Amino acid sequence: MSKRKRPEPKSSSSGINEDEKNILGLIRSKQGMGATTYEMRTATKIQPTLVTRAVASLKKSNLIKEVPNMNNKGIKHFLAVEFQPCKELTGGDWYIDGALDVSKIEGLKEICVRILERLKSKVVTLDVIYSYFEKASSDADKLSREQTREILKNLVLDNVVMEVKSNGLTDFSATRIGEICYKLTGKKSGGGEVRDGGFASVPCGACPHIGLCTPDGVISPTTCVYFQKWLDF
Q1: Of 122, 112, 116, 128, whose CA–CA distance to 202 is shortest?
Q2: How far is CA 45 from the centre of its chain?
Q3: Whole-angstrom Cα distance, residue 183 to residue 196?
Q4: Residue burial 85-109, b: 16+ Cβ < 10 Å; e: rest
Q5: Domains by residue range for the chain, with CATH
Q6: pLDDT tens-digit series, residues 154-211
């Protein structure tokens, strides 16, 4: 009598038909990007109705999952369950399960404002703010340089922070001329204290001779080299 073959252990994809195997193989090959039904049809040459049927069966078998494309919500991508969607689908670092993580963004904005409040200098560069987030004790508060830039840009849109170019004078003495810097606006934020307005960034705001400055005097805005440098930037 011939020996009976030992049955092979069943895989999670056992029991699916040939069309489903081909489509599942394609989806797995796309990893975190997954595949659309259009891509399935063109790559496998399977008829549209059979693709629809196969996708429904694979979803029911918990072999694939449907993920919306946040950049184009009219397109659905299908991923193998073992993969996480890539940033191109989720919308970036600020999304969780397809939804904008507003609470995280607002929390990081508050931290950024507190950092600016604690710093002695009135203007800081992106790298200075980034260094604080990089050293954060909580992993949730650690940001990349680009993420830090995005938080600052968000604060600029909120008119809580202003973006200015360094002129190398007064508050900008520690930065390179032309370098992009950030400072708090005169609006209330964080602790609620009113901050310096836009005049603080003008050389006149820190000039000890401003009381002697007149349009036709020896000290005049028209002959002031510092004021002209500020205008150039």
Answers
A1: 122
A2: 38
A3: 10
A4: beeebbbeebbeeeeeeeeeeeebb
A5: 18-94 (1.10.10.10), 102-196 (1.10.10.10), 202-233 (no CATH)
A6: 899 888 998 888 887 877 777 788 888 898 886 544 444 434 444 444 555 445 555 5
Extract the runs of DSSP E, i.e. beta strands, from the chain. Answer: 64-68, 76-80, 95-96, 99-100, 124-125, 161-165, 180-184
Distance of CA 112 to the CA centre of its chain: 15
Rounded to whole angstroms, the Cα distance separating 40 from 44 reads 6
pTM over 0.70: no
Nearest to 93 by CA among 132, 140, 147: 147
Q: Is 164 left (phi over 0), alpha (psi -120 to 50) or beta?
A: beta
Backbone angles phi, psi at 46, to 5 degrees: -85, 145
What value does the mean pLDDT of the chain take?
A: 77
Residues 6+ apart with CB under 8 A from 49: none
Determine which of 2-6, 103-107, 127-131, 174-178 has the lowest per-residue pLDDT on average. 2-6
CB 81 within 8 A of CB 31: no
Query: How far does the chain reach from its first CA to its final CA, in angstroms?
Result: 94
pLDDT tens for each residue of 46-95: 999 999 999 999 999 999 999 888 767 778 899 999 998 887 787 667 77
Q: Cα separation of 74 and 13, whole Å? A: 29
Rounded CA gap, 38 and 77, in Å? 10
Measure the CA–CA gap between 25 and 15, rounded to whole angstroms: 15
**Residues 106-122 pLDDT 10s:** 888 998 898 888 886 67
